[in-house]
Write a structure and sequence with these properties.
2 domains; five-stranded antiparallel β-sheet; Helicase, Ruva Protein, domain 3; 7 helices; about 290 residues; single chain; four-stranded antiparallel β-sheet; binds zinc ion
Protein backbone atom coordinates (compact mmCIF):
# COMPACT_ATOMS: atom_id res chain seq x y z
CA UNK A 1 0.00 0.00 0.00
CA UNK A 2 1.46 3.35 -0.98
CA UNK A 3 2.44 5.43 2.04
CA UNK A 4 3.46 9.09 2.25
CA UNK A 5 6.84 8.79 0.43
CA UNK A 6 5.35 6.82 -2.48
CA UNK A 7 2.49 9.30 -2.86
CA UNK A 8 4.93 12.21 -2.62
CA UNK A 9 7.05 10.71 -5.41
CA UNK A 10 3.93 10.39 -7.59
CA UNK A 11 3.05 14.01 -6.73
CA UNK A 12 6.50 15.26 -7.75
CA UNK A 13 6.30 13.33 -11.04
CA UNK A 14 2.81 14.60 -11.84
CA UNK A 15 3.63 18.16 -10.90
CA UNK A 16 6.65 18.04 -13.21
CA UNK A 17 4.83 16.44 -16.15
CA UNK A 18 1.21 17.68 -16.17
CA UNK A 19 1.30 21.04 -14.39
CA UNK A 20 0.07 23.76 -16.79
CA UNK A 21 -1.38 21.29 -19.29
CA UNK A 22 -4.86 21.78 -20.76
CA UNK A 23 -7.29 18.87 -20.72
CA UNK A 24 -8.77 17.84 -24.08
CA UNK A 25 -11.20 15.27 -22.73
CA UNK A 26 -11.78 12.70 -20.03
CA UNK A 27 -13.00 9.11 -20.29
CA UNK A 28 -14.36 7.19 -17.34
CA UNK A 29 -13.39 3.66 -18.36
CA UNK A 30 -14.64 1.88 -15.23
CA UNK A 31 -16.41 3.94 -12.59
CA UNK A 32 -16.26 1.21 -9.94
CA UNK A 33 -13.68 2.12 -7.31
CA UNK A 34 -14.06 2.45 -3.51
CA UNK A 35 -16.51 5.23 -4.39
CA UNK A 36 -18.13 5.42 -7.84
CA UNK A 37 -16.38 7.97 -10.08
CA UNK A 38 -18.92 10.75 -10.64
CA UNK A 39 -19.92 11.67 -14.20
CA UNK A 40 -18.99 15.27 -13.22
CA UNK A 41 -15.33 14.29 -13.48
CA UNK A 42 -15.77 13.96 -17.24
CA UNK A 43 -17.95 17.06 -17.64
CA UNK A 44 -16.10 19.48 -15.32
CA UNK A 45 -12.53 18.72 -16.37
CA UNK A 46 -12.97 19.19 -20.10
CA UNK A 47 -10.97 22.14 -21.53
CA UNK A 48 -9.62 23.02 -18.08
CA UNK A 49 -6.01 23.53 -17.09
CA UNK A 50 -4.00 21.77 -14.35
CA UNK A 51 -2.69 24.41 -11.93
CA UNK A 52 -0.71 22.32 -9.46
CA UNK A 53 -0.43 18.89 -7.86
CA UNK A 54 -0.29 18.86 -4.06
CA UNK A 55 -0.41 16.18 -1.39
CA UNK A 56 -2.08 15.82 2.01
CA UNK A 57 -1.30 12.60 3.94
CA UNK A 58 -1.72 9.83 1.33
CA UNK A 59 -4.03 11.91 -0.88
CA UNK A 60 -3.08 13.54 -4.16
CA UNK A 61 -4.73 16.90 -4.81
CA UNK A 62 -4.78 17.87 -8.47
CA UNK A 63 -5.87 21.51 -8.61
CA UNK A 64 -7.79 22.57 -11.71
CA UNK A 65 -8.30 26.19 -12.84
CA UNK A 66 -12.11 26.14 -12.40
CA UNK A 67 -11.65 26.08 -8.58
CA UNK A 68 -12.09 22.34 -8.47
CA UNK A 69 -9.68 19.74 -7.11
CA UNK A 70 -9.34 16.15 -8.11
CA UNK A 71 -8.83 14.20 -4.89
CA UNK A 72 -7.07 10.90 -5.59
CA UNK A 73 -6.33 8.10 -3.13
CA UNK A 74 -4.28 5.21 -4.50
CA UNK A 75 -5.76 2.65 -2.07
CA UNK A 76 -3.78 -0.62 -2.19
CA UNK A 77 -2.84 -0.86 -5.85
CA UNK A 78 -3.75 2.45 -7.51
CA UNK A 79 -1.21 3.57 -10.10
CA UNK A 80 -0.97 6.59 -12.32
CA UNK A 81 0.70 6.36 -15.69
CA UNK A 82 1.52 9.15 -18.11
CA UNK A 83 1.72 8.08 -21.72
CA UNK A 84 3.11 9.97 -24.65
CA UNK A 85 1.17 8.56 -27.61
CA UNK A 86 3.30 10.25 -30.27
CA UNK A 87 6.63 9.03 -28.90
CA UNK A 88 5.19 5.74 -27.55
CA UNK A 89 6.74 6.38 -24.15
CA UNK A 90 5.33 5.65 -20.71
CA UNK A 91 6.62 7.80 -17.88
CA UNK A 92 7.17 6.05 -14.63
CA UNK A 93 5.56 8.12 -11.90
CA UNK A 94 6.37 5.98 -8.87
CA UNK A 95 9.17 3.71 -7.75
CA UNK A 96 6.98 0.73 -6.94
CA UNK A 97 5.88 -0.58 -10.28
CA UNK A 98 6.62 -1.29 -13.90
CA UNK A 99 5.05 0.43 -16.82
CA UNK A 100 3.50 -2.61 -18.45
CA UNK A 101 0.00 -2.64 -17.00
CA UNK A 102 -3.24 -4.40 -17.83
CA UNK A 103 -5.76 -2.23 -19.65
CA UNK A 104 -8.69 -4.03 -18.04
CA UNK A 105 -7.76 -2.37 -14.73
CA UNK A 106 -7.84 1.15 -16.18
CA UNK A 107 -10.47 3.39 -14.58
CA UNK A 108 -9.87 6.92 -15.81
CA UNK A 109 -8.13 8.48 -18.78
CA UNK A 110 -7.37 12.18 -19.08
CA UNK A 111 -6.19 13.32 -22.52
CA UNK A 112 -4.26 16.55 -22.80
CA UNK A 113 -3.96 18.81 -25.85
CA UNK A 114 -0.22 18.07 -26.13
CA UNK A 115 -0.98 14.35 -26.74
CA UNK A 116 -0.03 13.19 -23.25
CA UNK A 117 -2.48 10.90 -21.46
CA UNK A 118 -2.92 10.26 -17.78
CA UNK A 119 -4.25 6.81 -16.85
CA UNK A 120 -5.50 5.75 -13.41
CA UNK A 121 -5.15 1.97 -13.07
CA UNK A 122 -6.21 0.00 -10.00
CA UNK A 123 -6.16 -3.82 -9.80
CA UNK A 124 -7.84 -4.15 -6.40
CA UNK A 125 -10.10 -1.08 -6.69
CA UNK A 126 -9.59 0.26 -3.15
CA UNK A 127 -8.51 3.66 -4.43
CA UNK A 128 -10.86 6.49 -5.34
CA UNK A 129 -11.18 9.67 -7.39
CA UNK A 130 -13.44 12.54 -6.35
CA UNK A 131 -13.92 16.01 -7.80
CA UNK A 132 -14.55 18.62 -5.13
CA UNK A 133 -14.58 22.40 -4.82
CA UNK A 134 -11.09 23.61 -3.87
CA UNK A 135 -12.56 25.89 -1.20
CA UNK A 136 -14.28 22.92 0.49
CA UNK A 137 -11.12 20.85 0.62
CA UNK A 138 -10.18 21.37 4.27
CA UNK A 139 -13.66 20.48 5.45
CA UNK A 140 -14.02 17.47 3.20
CA UNK A 141 -14.72 14.24 5.14
CA UNK A 142 -11.55 12.50 3.89
CA UNK A 143 -9.26 15.34 5.01
CA UNK A 144 -11.08 16.86 7.97
CA UNK A 145 -9.66 14.76 10.82
CA UNK A 146 -6.11 14.31 9.65
CA UNK A 147 -3.24 15.03 12.02
CA UNK A 148 -0.21 17.13 11.06
CA UNK A 149 2.06 16.27 8.16
CA UNK A 150 5.07 14.43 9.61
CA UNK A 151 7.51 16.51 7.57
CA UNK A 152 6.00 19.80 8.75
CA UNK A 153 7.10 21.84 11.78
CA UNK A 154 3.80 21.06 13.53
CA UNK A 155 4.95 17.47 13.98
CA UNK A 156 7.43 18.12 16.78
CA UNK A 157 8.37 16.93 20.28
CA UNK A 158 5.89 19.20 22.06
CA UNK A 159 2.97 18.08 19.91
CA UNK A 160 3.82 14.39 20.10
CA UNK A 161 4.40 14.41 23.85
CA UNK A 162 1.04 16.10 24.44
CA UNK A 163 -0.79 13.52 22.32
CA UNK A 164 1.17 10.54 23.71
CA UNK A 165 0.38 11.49 27.32
CA UNK A 166 -3.34 11.52 26.58
CA UNK A 167 -3.40 8.19 24.75
CA UNK A 168 -3.75 4.63 26.08
CA UNK A 169 -2.75 3.10 22.75
CA UNK A 170 0.44 1.24 21.99
CA UNK A 171 2.87 3.31 19.92
CA UNK A 172 2.41 1.10 16.83
CA UNK A 173 -1.34 1.71 16.62
CA UNK A 174 -0.85 5.34 17.61
CA UNK A 175 1.49 6.11 14.70
CA UNK A 176 -0.78 4.20 12.30
CA UNK A 177 -3.72 6.41 13.35
CA UNK A 178 -4.07 9.21 10.77
CA UNK A 179 -5.57 11.61 13.31
CA UNK A 180 -2.29 11.79 15.28
CA UNK A 181 0.06 11.97 12.32
CA UNK A 182 -0.95 11.81 8.66
CA UNK A 183 0.50 9.61 5.94
CA UNK A 184 2.32 6.84 7.80
CA UNK A 185 1.47 3.19 7.16
CA UNK A 186 2.67 -0.22 8.28
CA UNK A 187 6.06 -0.29 6.53
CA UNK A 188 7.29 3.08 7.76
CA UNK A 189 5.93 2.73 11.31
CA UNK A 190 7.84 -0.56 11.71
CA UNK A 191 11.00 1.08 10.42
CA UNK A 192 10.61 4.22 12.57
CA UNK A 193 10.17 2.18 15.75
CA UNK A 194 13.21 0.02 15.00
CA UNK A 195 15.37 3.06 14.35
CA UNK A 196 14.06 4.62 17.57
CA UNK A 197 14.75 1.39 19.57
CA UNK A 198 11.14 1.28 20.82
CA UNK A 199 9.03 -1.86 21.23
CA UNK A 200 5.87 -1.50 19.09
CA UNK A 201 3.70 -2.67 22.02
CA UNK A 202 4.86 0.11 24.36
CA UNK A 203 1.97 2.26 25.62
CA UNK A 204 2.41 5.87 24.53
CA UNK A 205 2.02 7.56 27.94
CA UNK A 206 4.97 5.48 29.20
CA UNK A 207 7.34 6.83 26.55
CA UNK A 208 10.30 8.79 27.88
CA UNK A 209 11.10 12.24 26.46
CA UNK A 210 14.18 10.96 24.63
CA UNK A 211 12.05 8.27 22.97
CA UNK A 212 9.49 10.80 21.78
CA UNK A 213 12.36 12.90 20.43
CA UNK A 214 13.73 9.88 18.60
CA UNK A 215 10.35 9.14 16.98
CA UNK A 216 10.03 12.71 15.65
CA UNK A 217 13.60 12.77 14.37
CA UNK A 218 13.54 9.30 12.78
CA UNK A 219 10.12 9.77 11.19
CA UNK A 220 11.38 12.80 9.30
CA UNK A 221 14.71 11.17 8.46
CA UNK A 222 13.24 7.91 7.12
CA UNK A 223 10.51 9.62 5.08
CA UNK A 224 12.95 12.11 3.54
CA UNK A 225 15.40 9.35 2.64
CA UNK A 226 12.69 7.31 0.98
CA UNK A 227 11.33 10.26 -1.01
CA UNK A 228 14.86 11.07 -2.16
CA UNK A 229 15.56 7.49 -3.25
CA UNK A 230 12.15 7.18 -4.92
CA UNK A 231 12.69 10.42 -6.74
CA UNK A 232 16.09 9.34 -7.99
CA UNK A 233 14.73 6.01 -9.21
CA UNK A 234 12.13 7.67 -11.45
CA UNK A 235 14.36 10.43 -12.78
CA UNK A 236 16.20 8.17 -15.20
CA UNK A 237 13.17 6.29 -16.37
CA UNK A 238 12.67 6.38 -20.08
CA UNK A 239 10.87 3.89 -22.29
CA UNK A 240 9.00 0.86 -21.08
CA UNK A 241 11.11 -1.08 -18.60
CA UNK A 242 11.16 0.01 -14.99
CA UNK A 243 13.31 -0.47 -11.94
CA UNK A 244 11.79 -1.41 -8.63
CA UNK A 245 11.93 0.77 -5.54
CA UNK A 246 15.30 1.15 -3.95
CA UNK A 247 13.94 1.84 -0.49
CA UNK A 248 12.73 -1.76 -0.12
CA UNK A 249 16.35 -2.87 -0.19
CA UNK A 250 17.16 -0.68 2.78
CA UNK A 251 14.33 -1.89 5.04
CA UNK A 252 15.68 -2.88 8.46
CA UNK A 253 12.76 -4.91 9.89
CA UNK A 254 9.67 -4.84 7.68
CA UNK A 255 8.91 -8.28 6.15
CA UNK A 256 12.15 -9.74 7.60
CA UNK A 257 10.68 -12.34 10.01
CA UNK A 258 13.34 -14.76 11.41
CA UNK A 259 16.14 -12.94 9.62
CA UNK A 260 19.12 -11.58 11.54
CA UNK A 261 18.86 -8.10 13.01
CA UNK A 262 20.82 -5.67 10.83
CA UNK A 263 22.31 -3.81 13.77
CA UNK A 264 25.98 -4.82 13.80
CA UNK A 265 26.31 -5.35 17.54
CA UNK A 266 23.09 -7.40 17.81
CA UNK A 267 22.76 -11.17 17.35
CA UNK A 268 18.95 -11.19 17.57
CA UNK A 269 16.38 -12.23 14.99
CA UNK A 270 13.44 -10.21 13.73
CA UNK A 271 10.12 -11.26 15.27
CA UNK A 272 6.69 -10.91 13.70
CA UNK A 273 3.63 -10.28 15.83
CA UNK A 274 0.12 -9.00 15.15
CA UNK A 275 -0.86 -5.58 16.46
CA UNK A 276 -4.23 -4.13 15.47
CA UNK A 277 -4.58 -6.84 12.78
CA UNK A 278 -1.40 -5.68 11.07
CA UNK A 279 1.98 -7.43 11.05
CA UNK A 280 4.59 -5.87 13.25
CA UNK A 281 8.27 -6.67 12.82
CA UNK A 282 10.79 -5.89 15.55
CA UNK A 283 13.95 -7.01 17.30
CA UNK A 284 13.35 -7.59 21.00
CA UNK A 285 17.04 -7.09 21.79
CA UNK A 286 17.11 -3.63 20.21
CA UNK A 287 13.56 -2.44 20.91
CA UNK A 288 12.56 -2.11 24.56
ZN1 LIG B 1 18.62 -6.19 17.16
Amino acid sequence: MPELPEVEVVRISLDTIICGLKIKNVDILNKKLRYIISANVKKDLKKQKIISVKRRAKFLLVNIDNNKTLLIHLGMTGKIFILDRTKKVTFKTSFYYYSNFLRKHNHLRIKFFNNLELIYNDVRKFGFIKLIKTNDLNNHSNLLNLGPEPLSKSFNFKYLKFKCLKSQKNIKNFLMDQKYVAGLGNIYVNEILFKSSINPRKITFKLKDFEICAIVKNTKKILKKSIKEGGSSIRDFKGTSGQDGYFQQSLMVYDRENQSCKKKTCKGKIKKINIGNRSSFFCKNCQK
